[in-house]
Amino acid sequence: MMNVESVLSALVFCAAGTGLFFYFINRFVLTQRDYPIKAPLLLLAFALLYGGGLWWGWRVGFAPSFWGALVLLAVMMVSEGRRLSLRRRMAGTPPVWQENVAEHLRKPFTTTTLALRHYEIRLPAWRGPRLRIAHVTDFHVNGMLPDAHYRLVMERVQQAEPDLIFYTGDFLSDETSYAERLPVLLGAVRGKLGSFAVLGNHDYWSDPARVTAVLKQAGVQTLENGFQALEAGGARFMLWGCEDPWGPTRWSAPPPADGLVLALSHTGDNIYRLARAGAHAVFSGHYHAGQWRLPGVGPLLVPSRFGRRFDHGHFVVQGAHLFVSAGIGITRIPFRIYCRPDVLIVDIFPAS
């Protein structure tokens, strides 16, 4: 006859161990530099926490440690409830139109199934004409995807006729030999007011000087941790770059700006400091929207100190609009599951 006490204890320990694994891997482990044994160590840690939880729970039953695991599980559930509450509170407006976004349960692999998402926002700080931004991120040019995929992305960007193109990092993975493909892929498409970029963690882990050089060759201006003043229709606005925490220097807030401020940051983790500094809209990538998503659940793994809070989409955080793209490339794991690569088109209008 099955021991109910042992079964309940095993399930509680297993759930607590699994939750603990995902908490630490999202906030601390995935944000660290990749190394050859990183993936095996993560699999080992998961096996120990998951399998070890089952074994230990079955063995001890309702021992004092069971109640500790139950309290830990309850804390995790409260934390998940808080995350959902924050997401609802900070949810921005949905896209005004989307293309190729419907998921099909029978077709889980979405590695090169490109989606377009078009947003519109009105900002009191902007007093010029409609400003159209195409946001593209996380190319990860590394030989896993064909050039045809990247060419399709850039064709769709060109068809949108953007005023600005924002690239928010991770042009490469770690293979610098692919850097010379970037000018060919990027150079034929330009924003009317220019194309701008910041580097991502993989760019810094490979060869940032070389990535910067080939971007310049492609006509893309890198902002680094600096800023750039631009004008459209007689109205001035500022672009900020933020390459923390991987850049060689720490980011510090630029001088106060009179008018619209748009910020590029590889990771959305910088949203709070950028919002406090005065940014009106922030464009980020890095998370790949999880790269693997479960229908109805979302991603389990997101490299962010906020866990899954800002995994993908449009948010309004302390008055600043945050746009997080799923990116268009892949790294390490050579496919996407129920997670389409996407390009974001964002139209900014004056409040009136």
Question: Any key phrases for this structure?
Answer:
352 residues; alpha/beta; Purple Acid Phosphatase, chain A, domain 2; 2 domains; six-stranded mixed sheet; 22% strand
The low-pLDDT segments are: none
Beta-sheet strand percentage?
15-25%
What structural class is derived from the secondary structure elements?
A: alpha/beta
State the strand order across the main sheet.
1-2-15-3-4-5-6
**How far is the first residue's CA from the last residue's CA?**
72 Å
> How many alpha or pi helices?
8
CATH architecture assignment name of the largest domain: 4-Layer Sandwich
Number of individual domains: 2
Can you describe this structure?
This protein has 352 residues and is an alpha/beta fold. The protein folds into 2 domains: 4-89, no CATH class; 94-350, Purple Acid Phosphatase, chain A, domain 2 (4-Layer Sandwich). The chain has 8 helices and 15 strands. Strands 1-2-15-3-4-5-6 form a 7-stranded mixed beta sheet. Strand 11 and strand 12 form a beta hairpin. Helix 1 (4-29) runs antiparallel to helix 2 and helix 1 (4-29) packs across helix 3. It is globular. It starts with a helix and ends with a strand.
Short description:
This protein is of the alpha/beta class and 352 residues long. 33% of the residues lie in helices and 22% in strands.
Q: SSE layout and pairings?
A:
Blueprint: H1 4-29, H2 38-60, H3 64-90, E1 97-99, E2 115-123, E3 131-136, H4 147-159, E4 164-167, H5 182-186, E5 195-197, H6 201-206, H7 208-217, E6 220-222, E7 227-232, E8 235-242, E9 260-267, H8 271-277, E10 281-285, E11 293-294, E12 298-299, E13 313-317, E14 320-324, E15 342-350
Parallel strand pairs: 2-15, 3-4, 4-5, 5-6, 8-9, 9-10, 10-14
Antiparallel strand pairs: 1-2, 3-15, 7-8, 11-12, 13-14
Helix pairs in contact: 1-2, 1-3
